[in-house]
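agent> call fold_tool(seq_1)
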Amino acid sequence: GAIFGMVTFGPLSDILGRRAGLISCSVITLAGALLSTLAWNVNALILARIITGIGMGGEYPLASSHSAESGSVDDGARNVALLYLFGSGFGPVLCDLVTYFLDLAGFPPHVIWRGIFLVGSALSFAGLLLRFATTKNSKSFTKAAKRATGTRRNFFRYYWRPLLGTALIWLLFDIVEYGLKQNDAAIFASNADG
């Protein structure tokens, strides 16, 4: 779902605007999180996670583009760094804390996983409200959108090498980052035994 969201919402936001794209991604993410909370079987949970992935996948290019465009030239990189610090740093820590406290409170596993998704739904809803109230298309985006003609074809013609390199590096980073996180329990369990 995430790849589909990235590939779809990036170009769509160039046409419809960053605000419309970001709000759409927030709505899709919220719908997926709510469906995950209410999933009635494994197939429903898988479908809900795909929907959530589409919304979150769209967030990656849109949130970083909007953060970079909304600040001055000097602030763009700082804004994107802060965005990823909170997304990649705060989010996983919060998920672990929610899981820990629900487990500590003695809830059974089937309540814990629903509780995790419920907290995610509440945060998605808060994010949607904030996004709706505060997000607007940046001046640089509005100015660039007015004079864009044939830019996508020219963009790929001149920038396909850096784009391909960046995509491959990001893929390798994701394999390391998410692959290791998914195997943490197995790695720590094997270290504890010997």
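agent> call fold_tool(seq_2)
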Amino acid sequence: AACAPVTSFVLHTSSPSPTHHHVHHHHHRTSPSRHTITVNMTAQDIDGKSIAATIRSELAAELSSLPSDSTSRPGLAVMLVGSRKDSQTYVRMKQKACSDCGMVSFLQEYPNGEEVEEEMLLKKIREWNEDEKVHGILVQLPLPEKISEERILKAVDPKKDVDGLHPANTASLFSTSTHAGAQKLNWKDFTAIPFH
């Protein structure tokens, strides 16, 4: 990853008010009553394509040892409602990613969004929730206006919620610990995040 230097700056904190901060560049004078902290920062580019390729390669190698009919082989179920071109493209990309990794993909399409009823979608999600071959569920958004996205997303089993949009999962993202042994990621330090 390429690194580019970023201009350092000086952070001055006034003694009487520790919550009041002033940021000045080096050419400014500082008063004797203030504490000076010099911070040097660098910007780091993250090569997303390279990281994704590495992850897919590692997954493909690991999954190649599983029997083709094994229920332990990861399976992704995708629900696509309507005929938006951008949504169709996104879903095709997900299916290709599954194929490249040796994962199983299940696609349920409802091309005519106007004819789709909410209960039809809920029924399919309930089936996927109970299906041991399905390990992840992705509901492609947006849904038609007459469909409650909130109700559909809540119906997905939180353990199979690929996008993390179930309320239980969005809440856990910002909590310090939602499960025993859970570790909160330090989003301020990208080098500490285990991308793979």
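agent> summarizing second result for user.
Residues 5-31 have pLDDT under 50 and may be disordered. Residues 85-101 form the longest helix (17 residues).
agent> awaiting next instruction.
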